[in-house]
Protein backbone atom coordinates (compact mmCIF):
# COMPACT_ATOMS: atom_id res chain seq x y z
CA UNK A 1 0.00 0.00 0.00
CA UNK A 2 1.23 3.46 -0.88
CA UNK A 3 2.38 5.71 1.94
CA UNK A 4 -0.18 8.52 2.00
CA UNK A 5 0.87 11.19 4.44
CA UNK A 6 -0.83 13.92 6.39
CA UNK A 7 1.76 16.41 7.62
CA UNK A 8 0.80 18.93 10.30
CA UNK A 9 2.89 22.03 11.09
CA UNK A 10 2.29 24.62 13.78
CA UNK A 11 5.21 26.82 12.71
CA UNK A 12 8.27 28.00 14.58
CA UNK A 13 7.17 31.24 16.23
CA UNK A 14 4.21 30.52 18.52
CA UNK A 15 2.70 27.42 20.04
CA UNK A 16 -0.62 26.18 18.69
CA UNK A 17 -1.70 23.41 21.02
CA UNK A 18 -5.29 23.56 19.77
CA UNK A 19 -4.15 22.24 16.39
CA UNK A 20 -2.01 19.48 17.91
CA UNK A 21 -5.06 18.32 19.90
CA UNK A 22 -7.46 18.58 16.98
CA UNK A 23 -5.43 16.36 14.63
CA UNK A 24 -5.18 13.66 17.31
CA UNK A 25 -8.92 13.38 17.95
CA UNK A 26 -10.32 9.90 17.24
CA UNK A 27 -12.88 11.29 14.73
CA UNK A 28 -10.13 12.95 12.73
CA UNK A 29 -7.94 9.83 12.68
CA UNK A 30 -10.88 7.64 11.63
CA UNK A 31 -11.66 10.03 8.79
CA UNK A 32 -8.00 10.01 7.69
CA UNK A 33 -7.98 6.19 7.62
CA UNK A 34 -11.19 6.16 5.60
CA UNK A 35 -9.61 8.53 3.05
CA UNK A 36 -6.69 6.09 2.62
CA UNK A 37 -4.04 7.84 4.68
CA UNK A 38 -1.39 5.67 6.32
CA UNK A 39 0.77 8.20 8.16
CA UNK A 40 0.13 11.25 10.34
CA UNK A 41 3.23 13.32 11.05
CA UNK A 42 3.04 16.27 13.43
CA UNK A 43 5.44 19.16 13.98
CA UNK A 44 4.21 20.08 17.46
CA UNK A 45 6.67 22.77 18.62
CA UNK A 46 7.77 23.31 22.21
CA UNK A 47 7.77 21.06 25.28
CA UNK A 48 4.06 21.60 25.99
CA UNK A 49 3.18 20.56 22.47
CA UNK A 50 5.24 17.41 22.92
CA UNK A 51 3.39 16.48 26.15
CA UNK A 52 0.03 16.89 24.44
CA UNK A 53 1.19 14.89 21.44
CA UNK A 54 2.39 11.97 23.60
CA UNK A 55 -0.67 11.92 25.86
CA UNK A 56 -3.09 12.06 22.93
CA UNK A 57 -1.22 9.38 21.03
CA UNK A 58 -1.37 7.04 24.06
CA UNK A 59 -5.12 7.65 24.36
CA UNK A 60 -5.66 6.80 20.72
CA UNK A 61 -4.00 3.41 21.17
CA UNK A 62 -6.65 2.51 23.72
CA UNK A 63 -9.71 3.67 21.80
CA UNK A 64 -8.89 3.01 18.14
CA UNK A 65 -7.46 0.37 15.91
CA UNK A 66 -4.34 2.13 14.74
CA UNK A 67 -2.56 -0.90 13.30
CA UNK A 68 -0.95 -0.07 10.00
CA UNK A 69 -1.43 3.62 10.71
CA UNK A 70 1.69 5.53 11.74
CA UNK A 71 1.62 8.52 14.04
CA UNK A 72 4.97 10.31 14.37
CA UNK A 73 6.06 13.74 15.48
CA UNK A 74 8.91 16.17 16.17
CA UNK A 75 9.38 19.61 17.75
CA UNK A 76 11.24 21.79 15.28
CA UNK A 77 13.54 21.40 12.31
CA UNK A 78 16.00 24.22 11.87
CA UNK A 79 16.72 23.22 8.30
CA UNK A 80 13.13 24.00 7.37
CA UNK A 81 10.19 21.77 6.52
CA UNK A 82 10.58 21.51 2.78
CA UNK A 83 11.72 17.90 2.91
CA UNK A 84 8.74 16.94 5.04
CA UNK A 85 6.45 18.64 2.55
CA UNK A 86 8.07 16.99 -0.44
CA UNK A 87 7.55 13.62 1.31
CA UNK A 88 3.82 14.40 1.41
CA UNK A 89 3.84 14.96 -2.35
CA UNK A 90 4.74 11.29 -2.80
CA UNK A 91 5.55 9.63 -6.10
CA UNK A 92 2.13 9.35 -7.67
CA UNK A 93 -1.29 10.93 -7.43
CA UNK A 94 -2.47 7.98 -5.32
CA UNK A 95 0.17 8.54 -2.68
CA UNK A 96 -0.18 12.35 -2.62
CA UNK A 97 -1.29 13.39 0.85
CA UNK A 98 -2.04 16.73 2.44
CA UNK A 99 -0.51 19.41 4.65
CA UNK A 100 -2.32 20.99 7.56
CA UNK A 101 -0.65 24.26 8.51
CA UNK A 102 -1.04 27.18 10.86
CA UNK A 103 -1.76 30.40 8.95
CA UNK A 104 1.81 31.81 8.95
CA UNK A 105 2.71 33.15 5.53
CA UNK A 106 6.06 31.34 5.43
CA UNK A 107 4.54 27.90 5.99
CA UNK A 108 1.69 28.58 3.56
CA UNK A 109 4.14 29.66 0.84
CA UNK A 110 6.28 26.57 1.44
CA UNK A 111 3.21 24.38 1.03
CA UNK A 112 2.03 26.21 -2.10
CA UNK A 113 5.47 25.87 -3.67
CA UNK A 114 5.50 22.10 -3.18
CA UNK A 115 2.04 21.98 -4.71
CA UNK A 116 0.32 19.67 -2.26
CA UNK A 117 -3.28 20.29 -1.08
CA UNK A 118 -3.02 22.56 1.92
CA UNK A 119 -5.40 23.10 4.83
CA UNK A 120 -4.78 26.42 6.57
CA UNK A 121 -5.97 26.67 10.18
CA UNK A 122 -5.75 30.17 11.71
CA UNK A 123 -4.79 30.30 15.37
CA UNK A 124 -7.78 31.95 17.00
CA UNK A 125 -5.84 32.42 20.25
CA UNK A 126 -3.78 35.21 18.70
CA UNK A 127 -5.36 38.66 18.99
CA UNK A 128 -5.87 40.91 15.95
CA UNK A 129 -5.00 38.00 13.77
CA UNK A 130 -4.56 39.29 10.23
CA UNK A 131 -3.61 35.76 9.24
CA UNK A 132 -7.32 34.94 9.12
CA UNK A 133 -7.65 37.35 6.19
CA UNK A 134 -4.85 35.63 4.30
CA UNK A 135 -6.39 32.18 4.86
CA UNK A 136 -9.81 33.47 3.74
CA UNK A 137 -8.63 35.06 0.53
CA UNK A 138 -6.50 32.05 -0.42
CA UNK A 139 -9.45 29.71 0.21
CA UNK A 140 -11.77 31.98 -1.83
CA UNK A 141 -9.36 31.80 -4.76
CA UNK A 142 -9.08 28.03 -4.38
CA UNK A 143 -5.44 27.81 -3.47
CA UNK A 144 -6.06 26.24 -0.07
CA UNK A 145 -8.78 24.78 2.18
CA UNK A 146 -9.78 26.95 5.14
CA UNK A 147 -9.67 24.61 8.15
CA UNK A 148 -11.67 25.23 11.31
CA UNK A 149 -10.32 23.89 14.57
CA UNK A 150 -13.74 22.67 15.72
CA UNK A 151 -14.48 20.78 12.51
CA UNK A 152 -11.22 19.49 11.12
CA UNK A 153 -12.55 16.13 9.81
CA UNK A 154 -14.63 18.10 7.27
CA UNK A 155 -11.41 19.48 5.77
CA UNK A 156 -10.33 15.98 4.67
CA UNK A 157 -13.16 15.73 2.16
CA UNK A 158 -12.58 19.32 1.02
CA UNK A 159 -8.96 18.40 0.32
CA UNK A 160 -10.01 15.65 -2.07
CA UNK A 161 -12.16 18.20 -3.94
CA UNK A 162 -9.31 20.73 -4.01
CA UNK A 163 -6.86 18.12 -5.33
CA UNK A 164 -8.84 17.87 -8.55
CA UNK A 165 -8.95 21.59 -9.33
CA UNK A 166 -5.97 23.01 -7.51
CA UNK A 167 -4.37 26.16 -8.85
CA UNK A 168 -0.62 26.65 -9.15
CA UNK A 169 1.17 29.32 -7.18
CA UNK A 170 2.32 31.85 -8.33
CA UNK A 171 -0.38 32.91 -10.77
CA UNK A 172 0.91 33.65 -14.27
CA UNK A 173 1.61 37.26 -15.13
CA UNK A 174 -0.62 38.52 -17.90
CA UNK A 175 2.31 40.05 -19.79
CA UNK A 176 0.39 43.26 -20.40
CA UNK A 177 1.27 44.84 -17.10
CA UNK A 178 3.58 47.81 -16.85
CA UNK A 179 5.99 45.96 -14.59
CA UNK A 180 6.67 42.62 -16.24
CA UNK A 181 9.51 41.77 -13.88
CA UNK A 182 7.62 42.85 -10.78
CA UNK A 183 9.74 44.40 -8.07
CA UNK A 184 12.89 44.45 -10.25
CA UNK A 185 11.17 46.91 -12.61
CA UNK A 186 10.07 49.22 -9.80
CA UNK A 187 13.64 49.16 -8.47
CA UNK A 188 14.96 50.04 -11.93
CA UNK A 189 12.48 52.89 -12.21
CA UNK A 190 13.58 54.30 -8.86
CA UNK A 191 17.20 54.11 -10.03
CA UNK A 192 16.32 56.08 -13.15
CA UNK A 193 17.05 53.14 -15.47
CA UNK A 194 15.02 52.32 -18.49
CA UNK A 195 12.82 49.25 -18.02
CA UNK A 196 13.47 46.63 -20.72
CA UNK B 1 -12.16 116.81 -5.03
CA UNK B 2 -13.74 113.89 -3.30
CA UNK B 3 -10.39 112.36 -2.45
CA UNK B 4 -9.31 115.62 -0.98
CA UNK B 5 -12.42 115.67 1.11
CA UNK B 6 -11.76 112.23 2.50
CA UNK B 7 -8.22 113.17 3.22
CA UNK B 8 -9.24 116.12 5.21
CA UNK B 9 -11.77 114.09 7.13
CA UNK B 10 -9.09 111.50 7.86
CA UNK B 11 -6.83 114.13 9.25
CA UNK B 12 -9.65 115.36 11.41
CA UNK B 13 -10.33 111.93 12.81
CA UNK B 14 -6.67 111.38 13.45
CA UNK B 15 -6.47 114.65 15.29
CA UNK B 16 -9.45 113.77 17.39
CA UNK B 17 -8.01 110.35 18.14
CA UNK B 18 -4.63 111.63 19.05
CA UNK B 19 -5.28 112.33 22.73
CA UNK B 20 -6.85 108.94 23.32
CA UNK B 21 -3.96 107.19 21.56
CA UNK B 22 -1.36 108.64 23.79
CA UNK B 23 -2.07 106.55 26.85
CA UNK B 24 -2.01 103.39 24.69
CA UNK B 25 1.40 104.33 23.35
CA UNK B 26 2.74 104.94 26.77
CA UNK B 27 1.49 101.47 27.75
CA UNK B 28 3.96 99.68 25.47
CA UNK B 29 7.10 100.34 27.52
CA UNK B 30 5.14 99.08 30.51
CA UNK B 31 4.93 95.59 29.01
CA UNK B 32 7.19 93.40 31.09
CA UNK B 33 10.41 92.16 29.51
CA UNK B 34 9.22 88.53 29.98
CA UNK B 35 6.25 89.01 27.68
CA UNK B 36 8.54 90.62 25.11
CA UNK B 37 10.73 87.59 25.35
CA UNK B 38 7.70 85.31 25.02
CA UNK B 39 6.46 87.08 21.89
CA UNK B 40 9.94 86.85 20.41
CA UNK B 41 10.20 83.14 21.20
CA UNK B 42 6.76 82.34 19.78
CA UNK B 43 7.59 84.26 16.58
CA UNK B 44 10.92 82.50 16.24
CA UNK B 45 9.32 79.09 16.90
CA UNK B 46 6.67 79.75 14.27
CA UNK B 47 9.30 80.79 11.74
CA UNK B 48 11.38 77.73 12.58
CA UNK B 49 8.36 75.41 12.29
CA UNK B 50 7.55 77.03 8.97
CA UNK B 51 11.07 76.44 7.68
CA UNK B 52 11.03 72.82 8.90
CA UNK B 53 7.64 72.27 7.29
CA UNK B 54 8.77 73.67 3.93
CA UNK B 55 11.98 71.67 4.04
CA UNK B 56 10.06 68.47 4.84
CA UNK B 57 7.53 69.09 2.09
CA UNK B 58 10.29 69.80 -0.40
CA UNK B 59 12.26 66.63 0.41
CA UNK B 60 9.14 64.44 0.54
CA UNK B 61 7.70 65.62 -2.76
CA UNK B 62 10.60 64.86 -5.04
CA UNK B 63 9.70 63.69 -8.48
CA UNK B 64 10.68 60.52 -10.31
CA UNK B 65 14.33 59.50 -10.43
CA UNK B 66 16.54 61.23 -12.97
CA UNK B 67 17.24 59.00 -15.96
CA UNK B 68 20.69 57.41 -16.06
CA UNK B 69 22.16 54.39 -17.81
CA UNK B 70 21.80 50.98 -16.20
CA UNK B 71 25.18 49.44 -15.31
CA UNK B 72 26.08 46.72 -17.80
CA UNK B 73 28.05 43.63 -16.93
CA UNK B 74 31.78 44.08 -17.48
CA UNK B 75 31.52 47.74 -18.34
CA UNK B 76 32.92 50.32 -15.93
CA UNK B 77 30.16 52.39 -14.34
CA UNK B 78 29.69 54.37 -11.14
CA UNK B 79 29.07 52.15 -8.09
CA UNK B 80 25.48 51.52 -7.08
CA UNK B 81 24.41 50.78 -3.52
CA UNK B 82 21.28 48.88 -2.45
CA UNK B 83 20.26 48.73 1.21
CA UNK B 84 17.98 45.90 2.27
CA UNK B 85 16.30 45.67 5.66
CA UNK B 86 15.74 42.19 7.02
CA UNK B 87 13.84 41.19 10.13
CA UNK B 88 12.09 38.48 12.03
CA UNK B 89 11.50 35.25 10.16
CA UNK B 90 8.63 35.93 7.78
CA UNK B 91 9.86 39.34 6.61
CA UNK B 92 13.35 38.03 5.86
CA UNK B 93 12.06 35.00 3.96
CA UNK B 94 9.74 37.16 1.83
CA UNK B 95 12.41 39.76 1.10
CA UNK B 96 15.03 37.24 0.03
CA UNK B 97 12.44 35.38 -2.02
CA UNK B 98 11.64 38.59 -3.93
CA UNK B 99 15.32 39.47 -4.37
CA UNK B 100 16.09 35.99 -5.69
CA UNK B 101 13.71 36.73 -8.57
CA UNK B 102 15.57 39.91 -9.46
CA UNK B 103 17.79 39.09 -12.43
CA UNK B 104 21.34 40.51 -12.46
CA UNK B 105 21.17 41.83 -8.92
CA UNK B 106 24.99 41.91 -8.44
CA UNK B 107 25.42 43.72 -11.78
CA UNK B 108 22.70 46.26 -11.11
CA UNK B 109 23.80 46.93 -7.55
CA UNK B 110 27.54 46.67 -7.19
CA UNK B 111 27.33 46.92 -3.41
CA UNK B 112 24.63 45.64 -1.04
CA UNK B 113 24.04 46.34 2.65
CA UNK B 114 21.78 44.08 4.70
CA UNK B 115 20.51 45.59 7.95
CA UNK B 116 19.43 43.18 10.70
CA UNK B 117 18.53 43.96 14.30
CA UNK B 118 20.51 42.63 17.25
CA UNK B 119 19.56 39.13 18.31
CA UNK B 120 18.34 38.18 14.84
CA UNK B 121 21.13 35.78 13.92
CA UNK B 122 18.72 33.90 11.65
CA UNK B 123 18.30 36.84 9.26
CA UNK B 124 22.04 37.51 9.24
CA UNK B 125 22.68 33.86 8.35
CA UNK B 126 20.05 33.98 5.60
CA UNK B 127 21.65 37.12 4.13
CA UNK B 128 25.05 35.39 3.91
CA UNK B 129 23.43 32.30 2.35
CA UNK B 130 21.64 34.50 -0.18
CA UNK B 131 24.88 36.27 -1.14
CA UNK B 132 26.57 32.89 -1.54
CA UNK B 133 23.82 31.80 -3.91
CA UNK B 134 24.40 34.99 -5.95
CA UNK B 135 28.09 34.22 -6.04
CA UNK B 136 27.39 30.66 -7.18
CA UNK B 137 25.32 32.00 -10.08
CA UNK B 138 27.99 34.47 -11.10
CA UNK B 139 30.70 31.86 -10.55
CA UNK B 140 29.18 29.61 -13.16
CA UNK B 141 29.92 32.33 -15.69
CA UNK B 142 33.50 32.41 -14.35
CA UNK B 143 33.49 36.17 -14.46
CA UNK B 144 34.41 37.07 -10.91
CA UNK B 145 38.05 38.15 -10.68
CA UNK B 146 40.13 36.71 -7.84
CA UNK B 147 40.86 38.86 -4.82
CA UNK B 148 37.89 41.16 -5.21
CA UNK B 149 36.69 42.71 -1.97
CA UNK B 150 33.37 41.41 -0.69
CA UNK B 151 30.71 43.59 -2.23
CA UNK B 152 28.17 43.27 0.53
CA UNK B 153 27.92 43.77 4.30
CA UNK B 154 25.56 42.52 6.96
CA UNK B 155 25.15 45.24 9.58
CA UNK B 156 23.58 44.73 13.00
CA UNK B 157 21.74 47.65 14.61
CA UNK B 158 20.20 47.86 18.08
CA UNK B 159 16.69 46.55 18.20
CA UNK B 160 14.10 49.36 18.29
CA UNK B 161 11.77 47.41 20.57
CA UNK B 162 11.92 43.89 21.87
CA UNK B 163 8.71 41.86 22.11
CA UNK B 164 7.02 42.72 25.45
CA UNK B 165 9.47 45.58 26.11
CA UNK B 166 8.10 48.26 28.46
CA UNK B 167 6.58 51.27 26.73
CA UNK B 168 8.73 53.52 28.97
CA UNK B 169 12.09 52.29 27.71
CA UNK B 170 10.99 52.01 24.07
CA UNK B 171 11.93 55.65 23.19
CA UNK B 172 15.46 55.08 24.50
CA UNK B 173 16.01 51.85 22.57
CA UNK B 174 14.44 53.43 19.46
CA UNK B 175 16.85 56.35 19.70
CA UNK B 176 19.79 53.96 19.96
CA UNK B 177 18.48 52.19 16.88
CA UNK B 178 18.09 55.53 15.05
CA UNK B 179 21.67 56.45 15.96
CA UNK B 180 22.90 53.14 14.50
CA UNK B 181 20.83 53.53 11.35
CA UNK B 182 22.17 57.04 10.73
CA UNK B 183 25.69 55.60 11.07
CA UNK B 184 24.82 52.90 8.53
CA UNK B 185 23.52 55.42 6.00
CA UNK B 186 26.51 57.73 6.50
CA UNK B 187 28.88 54.79 6.08
CA UNK B 188 30.43 55.14 9.53
CA UNK B 189 28.95 52.01 11.16
CA UNK B 190 31.74 49.67 12.41
CA UNK B 191 30.13 46.63 10.76
CA UNK B 192 30.69 48.13 7.31
CA UNK B 193 33.77 46.78 5.60
CA UNK B 194 36.33 49.41 4.78
CA UNK B 195 37.02 50.21 1.18
CA UNK B 196 40.61 51.21 0.53
CA UNK B 197 41.41 54.29 -1.48
CA UNK B 198 43.31 53.81 -4.73
CA UNK B 199 46.69 54.34 -3.10
CA UNK B 200 45.65 51.84 -0.41
CA UNK B 201 46.36 54.16 2.49
CA UNK B 202 43.05 55.72 3.36
CA UNK B 203 39.82 54.01 4.42
CA UNK B 204 36.98 55.24 2.30
CA UNK B 205 33.46 55.53 3.63
CA UNK B 206 30.67 53.82 1.78
CA UNK B 207 28.51 56.21 -0.19
CA UNK B 208 24.93 56.56 1.04
CA UNK B 209 22.58 54.00 -0.53
CA UNK B 210 20.90 54.77 -3.84
CA UNK B 211 17.90 52.64 -2.94
CA UNK B 212 16.39 51.32 0.30
CA UNK B 213 14.10 48.28 0.35
CA UNK B 214 11.94 47.35 3.32
CA UNK B 215 8.96 45.06 3.73
CA UNK B 216 7.77 45.92 7.19
CA UNK B 217 10.06 45.03 10.11
CA UNK B 218 10.29 47.71 12.81
CA UNK B 219 13.92 48.41 11.95
CA UNK B 220 12.78 49.51 8.49
CA UNK B 221 10.71 52.32 9.99
CA UNK B 222 13.78 53.60 11.81
CA UNK B 223 16.05 53.33 8.75
CA UNK B 224 13.58 55.35 6.65
CA UNK B 225 13.30 57.88 9.48
CA UNK B 226 17.11 58.11 9.55
CA UNK B 227 17.18 58.69 5.79
CA UNK B 228 14.62 61.51 6.17
CA UNK B 229 16.76 63.08 8.91
CA UNK B 230 19.86 62.93 6.68
CA UNK B 231 18.02 64.28 3.65
CA UNK B 232 16.54 67.03 5.82
CA UNK B 233 20.00 68.34 6.61
CA UNK B 234 21.15 67.61 3.08
CA UNK B 235 24.82 67.60 2.15
CA UNK B 236 25.78 68.95 5.57
CA UNK B 237 24.94 65.56 7.09
CA UNK B 238 27.13 63.65 4.67
CA UNK B 239 30.85 63.15 5.01
CA UNK B 240 33.18 65.05 2.63
CA UNK B 241 34.16 61.92 0.72
CA UNK B 242 30.51 60.92 0.32
CA UNK B 243 29.82 64.33 -1.13
CA UNK B 244 32.67 64.27 -3.57
CA UNK B 245 32.19 60.65 -4.65
CA UNK B 246 31.04 60.17 -8.17
CA UNK B 247 27.77 58.61 -7.10
CA UNK B 248 26.80 61.70 -5.13
CA UNK B 249 25.64 63.47 -8.27
CA UNK B 250 23.33 60.77 -9.52
CA UNK B 251 23.07 58.37 -6.60
CA UNK B 252 23.21 58.22 -2.84
CA UNK B 253 19.73 59.66 -2.96
CA UNK B 254 18.27 57.10 -0.60
CA UNK B 255 15.11 56.56 -2.62
CA UNK B 256 12.88 54.07 -0.84
CA UNK B 257 10.47 51.26 -1.71
CA UNK B 258 8.12 49.78 0.88
CA UNK B 259 6.67 46.37 0.04
CA UNK B 260 3.72 45.30 2.19
CA UNK B 261 3.92 41.70 3.36
CA UNK B 262 2.14 39.02 1.34
CA UNK B 263 0.33 38.16 4.57
CA UNK B 264 -1.47 41.53 4.47
CA UNK B 265 -4.68 41.18 2.48
CA UNK B 266 -7.23 43.75 3.69
CA UNK B 267 -5.44 45.97 6.18
CA UNK B 268 -2.05 47.68 6.06
CA UNK B 269 0.52 46.77 8.69
CA UNK B 270 1.52 49.30 11.36
CA UNK B 271 4.89 49.85 9.64
CA UNK B 272 3.05 50.39 6.37
CA UNK B 273 0.69 52.97 7.85
CA UNK B 274 3.61 54.78 9.48
CA UNK B 275 5.83 54.78 6.40
CA UNK B 276 3.36 55.54 3.60
CA UNK B 277 3.95 59.34 3.61
CA UNK B 278 7.72 58.96 3.74
CA UNK B 279 8.63 56.40 1.08
CA UNK B 280 8.93 56.98 -2.66
CA UNK B 281 7.03 53.83 -3.63
CA UNK B 282 4.46 51.81 -1.69
CA UNK B 283 3.69 48.38 -3.11
CA UNK B 284 1.07 45.91 -1.88
CA UNK B 285 0.67 42.29 -2.93
CA UNK B 286 -3.12 41.95 -2.91
CA UNK B 287 -5.44 44.01 -5.16
CA UNK B 288 -7.88 44.45 -2.23
CA UNK B 289 -5.37 46.75 -0.52
CA UNK B 290 -4.91 48.97 -3.57
CA UNK B 291 -8.67 49.30 -4.01
CA UNK B 292 -9.01 51.24 -0.75
CA UNK B 293 -8.00 54.31 -2.75
CA UNK B 294 -5.24 55.40 -0.38
CA UNK B 295 -2.71 57.50 -2.28
CA UNK B 296 0.61 56.04 -3.40
CA UNK B 297 -0.53 52.42 -2.93
CA UNK B 298 0.34 50.29 -5.98
CA UNK B 299 -0.54 46.69 -6.78
CA UNK B 300 1.71 45.17 -9.42
CA UNK B 301 0.84 41.49 -9.01
CA UNK B 302 2.01 39.03 -6.35
CA UNK B 303 5.74 39.37 -5.71
CA UNK B 304 6.57 36.35 -3.55
CA UNK B 305 6.63 32.97 -5.21
From TrEMBL, chain A:
Q: Which GO terms describe its molecular function?
A: N-acetylglucosaminyldiphosphodolichol N-acetylglucosaminyltransferase activity
Task: Say which domain of life the source belongs to.
Answer: Eukaryota
For this UniProt record, the keywords arranged alphabetically read as follows: Endoplasmic reticulum, Glycosyltransferase, Transferase
The cross-references to Pfam families, in alphabetical order and at most eight, read: Glyco_tran_28_C
Assigned EC number:
2.4.1.141
A Gene Ontology biological process noted in the UniProt record is:
dolichol-linked oligosaccharide biosynthetic process
Q: Which residues form the Glycosyl transferase family 28 C-terminal domain?
A: 6-160
One GO cellular component term: UDP-N-acetylglucosamine transferase complex
Q: Which reaction does it catalyse?
A: an N-acetyl-alpha-D-glucosaminyl-diphospho-di-trans,poly-cis-dolichol + UDP-N-acetyl-alpha-D-glucosamine = an N,N'-diacetylchitobiosyl-diphospho-di-trans,poly-cis-dolichol + UDP + H(+)
EC class: transferase
- Report the InterPro entries cross-referenced here: Glyco_trans_28_C, UDP-GlcNAc_transferase
Compartmental location: Endoplasmic reticulum
Free-text function comment from the UniProt entry: Involved in protein N-glycosylation. Essential for the second step of the dolichol-linked oligosaccharide pathway.
Instruction: Give the family, as the similarity comment puts it.
Output: Belongs to the glycosyltransferase 28 family.
Q: How does it assemble?
A: Heterodimer with ALG14 to form a functional enzyme.
Q: What is this protein called in UniProt?
A: UDP-N-acetylglucosamine transferase subunit ALG13
Question: What is the source species?
Answer: Capronia coronata CBS 617.96
Q: What lineage is this protein's organism placed in?
A: Eukaryota, Fungi, Dikarya, Ascomycota, Pezizomycotina
UniProtKB/TrEMBL annotation, chain B:
Q: How does it sit in the membrane?
A: Single-pass membrane protein
Q: Say if the entry is tagged with keyword Transmembrane helix.
A: yes
Task: Quote the cellular component terms of the Gene Ontology held in the record.
Answer: nuclear membrane; UDP-N-acetylglucosamine transferase complex
GO molecular function terms attached to this record: N-acetylglucosaminyldiphosphodolichol N-acetylglucosaminyltransferase activity
Q: Where are the transmembrane segments?
A: 37-60, 211-233
InterPro entries documented for this protein: Oligosacch_biosynth_Alg14 (IPR013969)
Please classify the protein's predominant subcellular localization into one broad category.
Answer: endoplasmic reticulum
Q: What keywords tag this UniProt record?
A: Endoplasmic reticulum, Membrane, Transmembrane, Transmembrane helix
Q: Which residues form the signal peptide?
A: none
**Tell me, what is an example of a GO biological process annotation in this record?**
dolichol-linked oligosaccharide biosynthetic process
Asked if the Swiss-Prot or TrEMBL record annotates the protein with the keyword Endoplasmic reticulum, the reply is yes
Source organism, top-level taxon? Eukaryota
Its subcellular locations are: Endoplasmic reticulum membrane; Nucleus membrane
- Which proteins does it associate with, and in what oligomeric form? Heterodimer with ALG13 to form a functional enzyme.
The family note in this entry says: Belongs to the ALG14 family.
Its protein name is UDP-N-acetylglucosamine transferase subunit ALG14
Q: Which organism was this protein described from?
A: Capronia coronata CBS 617.96
Amino acid sequence: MADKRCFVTIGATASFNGLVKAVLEPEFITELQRAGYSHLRVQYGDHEGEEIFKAKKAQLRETLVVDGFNITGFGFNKAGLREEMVAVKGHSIESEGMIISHAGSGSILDGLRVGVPLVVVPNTDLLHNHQVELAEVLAEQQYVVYGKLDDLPAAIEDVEKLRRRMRDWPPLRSGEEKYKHGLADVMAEEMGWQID
Amino acid sequence: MEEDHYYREDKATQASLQPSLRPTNSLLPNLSSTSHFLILMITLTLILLGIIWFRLVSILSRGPAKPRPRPRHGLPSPPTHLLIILGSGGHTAEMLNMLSQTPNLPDDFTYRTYVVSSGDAFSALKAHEFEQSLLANVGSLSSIPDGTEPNYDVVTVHRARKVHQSILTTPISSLRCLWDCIAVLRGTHPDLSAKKSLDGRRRLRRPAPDLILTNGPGTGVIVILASIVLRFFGDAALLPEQRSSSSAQTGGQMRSIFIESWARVRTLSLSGRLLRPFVDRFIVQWPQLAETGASKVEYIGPLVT
